[in-house]
Design goal:
The protein is α+β, with helices and mostly antiparallel strands. The chain is built from ten helices and nine strands.
Length: 343
């Protein structure tokens, strides 16, 4: 057998071994409780640093592809789907859910093609833009912006900031970012957006494009975002694959400080660390409000098994409380399942 045939034989044998080995490992040989230890899994920076302290981000070195719906989570997916079906008679018109166990790259997605208006979820993109600029020019975070306060952009929102900016006051860019994320403050958002130069606006648009969102839809109140689409944003921060580690950590730290205690946060214990963002929007027909949208996406730092959960909803009526309850119930169902798997 010549050299080329030997090399070809070895390559083919390795591929067949990998396919068979993964299949046996994943579905037949090992119980779910040990799959993460014995089957292919992401290799992260933390696994290469013995004794390092836990952090909010965990840079990704390599990863295996994930299936949209994993067999081991089929029962949980059915449970969540049954709950969603039960709420349609109460006014829930649409719901999409994506769950991912970050370490094992398993999970499920429900109603993945339905599109929603991102609303305040977009604020994370602006934060990422400023931190991306700060990677080259850290001084931008110390730049002071004068806030006049002549117009309240929070007025139309049902979920309002718990802390307001003070009119006729100078704030640093970093302080405005904190208000925008921690309190979902539209006034801080407007001040930061107006402060962007033409070149920085281009970077802002590039961030949307890099994270697979059409930048031309940013200022349009149209349904453009899928539940899986926003998962990309959270993964980029957790994996520290788009911003450097320092600013990925800072972004996630601000997201853990969100004062939104309804939704996903209501479905997990108070002791659980959660990096999250929500977005609300009105559904209008001929100028009349006929319904609401509420989306909430986050990373729940369950010990040794952090997971990503994104829930997007649409419902009839002109108040948000019902949808907050739907988010909380789905979050609770998922958390209990994770807790049962990894006590």
């Amino acid at each position: 057998m010549n050299r080329k045939k030997i090399i070809l034989f070895v390559v083919v044998a390795c591929v067949i071994e990998a396919i068979i080995g993964f299949g046996l490992c994943r579905f037949f040989l090992f119980p779910r409780s040990v799959q993460s230890a014995l089957c292919p899994a992401p290799v992260r920076e933390s696994s290469m640093q013995y004794g390092s302290q836990a952090t909010l981000s965990d840079p990704l070195i390599t990863i295996r592809p994930a299936s949209p719906n994993s067999p081991e989570y089929a029962a949980l997916q059915d449970q969540v789907q049954s709950y969603i079906n039960s709420q349609t008679e109460n006014g829930l018109s649409s719901a999409s859910v994506q769950f991912r166990d970050i370490n094992t790259v398993t999970g499920f997605v429900i109603n993945p093609t339905e599109k929603y208006y991102p609303a305040s979820l977009y604020k994370v993109f602006l934060m990422i833009t400023y931190f991306r600029i700060a990677g080259e020019n850290p001084d931008i975070l110390n730049k002071k912006i004068y806030y006049e306060g002549t117009h309240d952009y929070n007025a139309p929102e049902e979920i309002k900031p718990s802390v307001d900016l003070v009119p006729n006051t100078y704030y640093t860019v970093e302080q405005l970012i904190e208000h925008m994320i921690r309190y979902s403050d539209n006034n801080a958002l407007r001040a930061l957006t107006d402060n962007l130069t033409n070149e920085q606006t281009h970077i802002y648009q590039q961030v949307f494009g890099d994270l697979n969102i059409n930048p031309s839809t940013v200022d349009q109140q149209v349904n453009t975002l899928t539940v899986g689409g926003y998962g990309t944003v959270l993964s980029a921060l957790y994996n520290a694959s788009y911003l450097d580690r320092r600013y990925s950590e800072r972004a996630l730290e601000l997201l853990t400080q969100s004062d939104f205690t309804e939704g996903i946060a209501s479905g997990v214990p108070n002791t659980s660390e959660l990096a999250q963002k929500f977005g609300e929007a009105q559904i209008e027909v001929n100028g009349a409000i006929v319904g609401k949208q509420l989306s909430n996406c986050g990373i729940i730092y369950y010990p040794h098994h952090p997971y990503r959960l994104c829930v997007m909803t649409k419902g009839a009526g002109d108040h948000i409380k019902f949808l907050e309850g739907v988010l909380a119930d789905i979050s609770r169902i998922v958390y209990k399942d994770v807790e049962k798997r990894y006590p």
